[in-house]
Amino acid sequence: MRAALLREINTNLIIEDVSVAEIGPGEVLVRTVACGLCHSDLHFVEGKLPQKLPTLLGHEVSGVVEAVGVDVDEFAPGDRVVGCLNTHCFQCRQCVEGRTHLCEMRLALQKRPDGSSRIRFGDEEVFQLAGLGGFAEMMLAHRSGLTRVPDGLPLDVGALLGCAVITGVGAVFNTARLRAGSTVAVVGVGGIGLNIIQGARLAGAERIIAVDVRQDKLELAASFGSTDGVLGGGVDVAAEVVELTKGGVDAAFEAIGFAETANQAFRMTRRGGATYLAGVSATGTGYDFTGNDLVLGGRSVHGVYMGSNFFKRDIPMLANLYLQGRLKLDELVSARISLNEINDGFSAMKNGDVARSVVVL
Ligand SMILES: [Zn+2]
Ligand SMILES: [Zn+2]
């Protein structure tokens, strides 16, 4: 099958012919329909997250089941599915406590039980990111990395439920458990930020302040439910948010993964407020807030990993919100591209041009 491989850090992906292993126990073979380009994929391209090369990226993915392993009764050929990188075992301490997104076996489940990869390029093993590898015509995944979605959900936009949407809306619903009437700031209006904004709208936030360095993104944010916009670049955005809210927000969300924007988000919170870091940062990123900022201000900082999701519950729930007209998905997609155009999609992301490019296979 054709797959877009990363063979060297900081180079273009190359479309190559790769082979997929025979379907094994616990596995599901999926014909890929769509896969979104996520900032985390870009981090891998740029070598900011650890990996083994060659890598098959793509983890925001949808498709149709072609075949299932002998012991898999959860899926059948023809099922429409969305993937999520949170493979889980349902047996470890995290899983039995309901935190499948923190499963201790997650990485092991992304490979075969013997540690081998499901994808090969010639005689090389291909690192299948998230155990998915959505930038390819087919995907052989562990059943715990997939969930069925309702028939009415278009799969090109449905793919986004698996990362950007579940990370953003999940940060609000699952991690922050935002109360109606809360005041919120969202720093960084990209794929995750827009979903934090619409999550906050769905949760009944009274005031939702979008912060970005681009005016067009603030306008897009308003269409997703922000009530105010603060344009960054050369101004003290934290001071502006504190002024706008007469003392700071209850919850500030950082959706990019930079130290500077995380520090800004923290300084936007009122006493007793909470900061949620939802953007994946480069390895080694640290922050400015001090112990007494936390203790004397009664503030907290939370890492939000993938929206603290329980994705087999959350993705169908989000799909139904979309089908009810309450969750925006179509508006998140700014470009549909072919697999051959994938490098242009990453260039656009680096330029900050788009909400989301989606590869449609
Ligand atoms: Zn992602
Ligand atoms: Zn587990």
Count the DSSP helices: 12
- Straight-line distance between termini: 12 Å
Oligomer: single chain
Largest sheet: 7 strands, mixed
* Low-confidence residue ranges: none
Number of strands: 19
Helix content: 25-40%
- Averaged pLDDT: 95
Bound molecules: zinc ion
Tell me, what's the shape?
A: globular
Count of distinct structural domains: 2
SS-based class = alpha/beta
Strand content: 25-35%
CATH architecture of the largest domain: Alpha-Beta Complex
Q: Could you give me the name of the CATH homologous superfamily of the largest domain? A: Medium-chain alcohol dehydrogenases, catalytic domain
CATH class of the largest domain: Alpha Beta
Report on the architecture of this protein.
It is a single chain. By secondary structure, the protein is an alpha/beta fold. Strand 1 and strand 2 form a beta hairpin. Strands 4, 6, 7, 10, 11, 18 and 19 form a seven-stranded mixed beta sheet that branches. A six-stranded mixed beta sheet has the order 2-1-5-9-8-3, with no helix packed on it. The relative contact order is 0.16. It folds into two domains: about 180 residues, Alpha-Beta Complex (Quinone Oxidoreductase, Chain A, domain 1); about 140 residues, NAD(P)-binding Rossmann-like Domain (Rossmann fold), CATH 3.40.50. Helix 5 packs across helix 6 and helix 8 packs parallel to helix 9. The protein is globular and about 60 Å long. The site of one zinc ion (ZN) has 5 residues, from loops.
